[in-house]
Write a structure and sequence with these properties.
Helix content is 42%, strand content 16%. The protein has 450 residues and is of the alpha/beta class. The protein has a 4-stranded mixed sheet. α6 crosses α10 and α12 runs antiparallel to α13. The longest helix has 26 residues. The chain is globular and about 75 Å long. It starts with 11 loop residues before the first helix and ends with a strand.
Length: 450
């Protein structure tokens, strides 16, 4: 985190004297400069840190649990966002997802809620008033501003019927905090020069999960909910929805998996330690003990739901890139060049992060199974949504792949693991286009009970 040039000549004593009413960003700038000055006193630094901690908001979520993302959640409502292009024109891919989700909701007897902007509402209404959707139960909410297509990440639907959205932060400050956490945790996983490249060029390695903050979708979701007369809570830790998975342990007790990017970013933002951040999460979501908040290393992905699948009852499937890394390493040795060496380095980091994620889960008492359920944009079966049909059966909606891949995964879920009665896949063509944009059907949908 760097100070603005206009702040650089201000004395530390003046900083401290006028810090009480400053923003989180301004206080961090002051803290950064104080820590860089050899003459700074420890009590001045401690005072600024205390000022930062005092900016932590109070609990306003009703201390209710987020909707479970395992089959035990028995999800009956799916929330989808619809967007137009930057030129305010309909986008065929986005409408293809409206059709797929509407048809699936209709077939399973679920309810559908679509959040969109003014012009987008006309597109959705024109589609859903067609005869083929007769009997579909849906509602369209209109946001004051354009929304993100990633409905998963901007909100949690709580067991008390109240939505909770993310507290917004300064974009630069948030990126700095999340990167600082990665730099500390990822030491030794790859060569130092590759680590620095991964941290600086995250979009080419492992994307930072900060897009909800950048796109301001939480605010749009909050306004839409308030227009419906709902109270809206605020999640104090920076946890984008795909980086939080609520489920249950083997005894049926609720647990929440939280990506360590979220925990560390929040710790840096508010000058807390990891246990204090877990305590915030425990309070927000009404858990009995802090041990029910399980910090999990990012499994080589910016969100947990892109590299692991919580199938319920204390069992989590974690991606397994070990064989892919072995093959990439052998290729780099056989044909040494920048391309092969870089691919090997990326897979080395991904594999190491997956191992760390698996270890975090096992230490917390979660059973871990390893399986290669994703291959970049070709398919990703980790990313999806469990729902309960009107027939009482359990279903899993996920991204399509080739017939061979889909049949294999269907067998795993239905026969081998006995998790659901059926897997429903999106059309492969739209799945690949969406995954190219760093998100699948599980990022586009959010489940709730009501």
């Amino acid at each position: 985190m760097h100070l603005r040039e206009s702040d650089s000549s201000t004395s530390s004593n003046s900083f401290v004297a006028h810090s009480e009413d400053l923003s989180l960003t301004a206080l961090h700038e002051m803290l950064s400069q104080l820590q860089s000055e050899p003459s700074s006193k420890s009590d001045e630094i401690a005072l600024i840190k205390e000022r930062i901690r005092n900016l932590l908001p109070q609990v306003d979520t009703g201390r209710a649990l987020p909707q479970k993302k395992t089959p035990h959640g028995r999800t009956k409502v799916l929330h989808l966002n619809y967007i137009r292009s930057q030129a305010d024109e309909p986008v065929e891919l986005e409408m293809a997802y409206v059709r797929f989700v509407a048809q699936t909701v209709q077939a399973l007897g679920l309810r559908l809620e679509i959040l969109t902007h003014k012009a987008g509402r006309d597109d959705v209404e024109q589609e859903l008033t067609k005869d083929e959707y007769k009997g579909l139960e849906y509602v369209i909410l209109t946001a004051q501003n354009p929304v993100s297509k990633w409905a998963e990440d901007s909100v949690e639907y709580l067991s008390n019927g109240q939505p909770a959205v993310l507290t917004p932060f300064d974009d630069q400050l948030l990126a700095w905090a999340m990167t600082a956490g990665r730099r500390h945790r990822w030491q030794g996983m790859i060569a130092p020069e590759n680590l620095e490249e991964a941290l600086q060029d995250d979009h080419l390695w492992i994307l930072l999960g900060t897009r909800v903050n950048t796109l301001k979708t939480g605010r749009a979701r909050e306004q839409a909910a308030q227009a419906q007369g709902q109270n809206v809570g605020h999640i104090r830790a920076y946890i984008e929805g795909g980086n939080l998975i609520t489920g249950e342990d083997a005894m049926g007790n609720p647990v929440i998996l939280v990506g360590k990017d979220a925990i560390d970013a929040t710790a840096y933002l508010y000058q807390l330690n990891q246990d204090e951040v877990k305590q915030l999460i425990r309070e927000d979501f009404g858990l009995a003990g802090v041990s029910q908040v399980i910090g999990v290393e990012q499994p080589g992905k910016f969100h947990l739901d892109m590299g692991m699948l919580f199938i319920g009852q204390g069992v989590v499937i974690v991606n397994d890139s070990r064989e892919a890394f072995k093959e990439a390493k052998e290729m780099a040795e056989m044909v040494p060049c920048l391309t092969t060496e870089k691919m090997a380095a990326k897979l080395q980091l991904q594999s190491a992060l997956e191992e760390a994620a698996a270890n975090d889960l096992q230490v917390a008492g979660i059973e871990v199974r390893r399986a290669k359920l994703e291959n970049d944009v070709d398919y990703n079966f980790f990313n999806g949504e469990f729902v309960a049909g009107k027939d009482g059966l359990s279903y899993y909606l996920t991204n399509g792949g080739s017939k061979e891949q889909a049949d294999w995964f269907q067998t795993l879920m239905v026969e081998d693991w006995q998790v659901v009665d059926e897997v429903i896949f999106t059309p492969p063509a739209i799945a690949q286009k969406s995954l190219q944009d760093q998100g699948g059907i599980g990022c586009r949908l959010k489940g709730s009970q009501r």
